[in-house]
Fold this sequence. Notes:
Bound molecules: pyridoxal-5'-phosphate
Number of helices: 12
Radius of gyration: 26 Å
Distance between the termini: 74 Å
Strand content: 15-25%
Amino acid sequence: LATDLGVGRGSVVEAYSRLIEEGWLVARQGGSTRAAAVPLSSPPPAAAARPTRLWQHDLRPGRADPASFPRSDWAAAVRRVLTDAPNEAFDYAEWRGRSELRIALAGYLGRARGVRCTAEQVLVCTGAGHGMGLALRALAGLGRRRVAVEEPGAPQLRRIAAAAGLEVVGLPCDEHGARVELLAGMDVGVVVVTPAHQFPLGVTLSADRRTRLVAWARDHDAVVVEDDYDGELRYDRQPVGALQALDPDHVIYAGTTSKSLAPALRIGWLVVPPRLCRHLAKTAELINAAPSALDQLALTQLITTGGFDRHVRRLRGLYRSRRDLLIDSLATSAPTTVVTGASAGGHALVRLDPAGPGEAEVVAGAARRGIALSGLTDFRHPDPLDLHAESSPALVVGYATPAGQSHRTAISALAAFLGQIS
Ligand SMILES: Cc1ncc(COP(=O)(O)O)c(C=O)c1O
């Protein structure tokens, strides 16, 4: 057989022994080797794969530019960790996260976002979504029943809150952010907000509403969960610090690397009021899902060497120019549209002419031209109170993606399309 196949005898012997080990052949001492009588089972029918559409231009919100990931800085950080980390770093990590990262994050968040905390209050998790899930579960375990989430807001947050066992109600938002004055009549013990850059409207929670929100939390012994998903990315407005700084005892702060580095990393963090730390840590232990300790150490390395700050500065410049291109292109080609909420993050609200085609029609028309868009309606809460403050047709356009030069063509295609239909 070795001669027939033109391979070495050793390869044939190896192949035979493997087939025997796996039960496909039966070898008898002094006899021939035969094929085993293996019952033939047909493989289970493959689940019908849902066809994923390949878009020519994908301008849906919520994602970072994957091409901007600082590959060489990350590779250097990982190399450093693998060289320097003590052996215990390869063991099970503490469920609150590596202490090195918690110390680095406490410093970074204080400096960059004005968060007031010690490393003891930091809990490392696999993203803001995971962190908020932990927080809401822990609060449900402490007897909270109802949570208010922003309306419009991120649909995945509503699912996370419901999965935590809480009843979810919508808190309407307007051009000043969440309408916190409504909380008093909503009978909720928890509220989740995006104060720095409301998702998806893009507005900032006004100063008086911030004060009012923490006062409400204090008066009702309620908890505010602050989702600071893109807090690092601000462009031409005064830095807006974290709400948490106004009342570290009533605000749970959630942050993530998903917008600043890459969603693939799965690293985020919570900053927890001291009185809730033990309970949150227990919940995290129970859920038992933390990011790799080695990645945590690599992120520590990136933060402490200044590489993270440098990367965020570069990203701000890149996203600001992409944002400007979106605004300029629409002003030129589709002047009936109005762009708002674009002073931070990676998405903007593009308001459509109320006299023109409706939102669903625009999204469908764009899809026929290979442009993936999200309408504002996609982010609405099925609110029984029907308190929608925002009802005019609009698109939520992600300008952080697509990557590289394809970004320019995508924006041109969008501007040309919106210009044609208006
Ligand atoms: C508003 C908002 N909050 C939180 C998240 C969660 O991010 P992650 O779980 O990837 O950290 C996202 C993700 O897109 C988001 O858009």
